[in-house]
Amino acid sequence: MELRDKVVVVTGGASGIGAGLARRFCEEGVRGLVIADLNSEAAASLAVELGARSHGVDVRDESAIAALVADTEAEFGQIDLFCSNAGILNLDEGDYWATSSPNDVWQRNWEIHVMAHIYAARACLPSMIRRAEGHFLHTVSAAGLLNQPYTAAYATTKHAAIGFAESLAIAHGDDGIKVSCLCPQGVDTAMLGGSDGGAAGLDGILSPAQVAEATVVGLREEQFLILPHEQVQQYHLNKAQNYDRWIGGMRKLRRTMRPPTLP
Ligand SMILES: NC(=O)c1ccc[n+]([C@@H]2O[C@H](COP(=O)([O-])OP(=O)(O)OC[C@H]3O[C@@H](n4cnc5c(N)ncnc54)[C@H](O)[C@@H]3O)[C@@H](O)[C@H]2O)c1
Question: For the chain, does the N or the C end have fewer beta carbons within 10 angstroms?
Answer without folding.
Answer: C
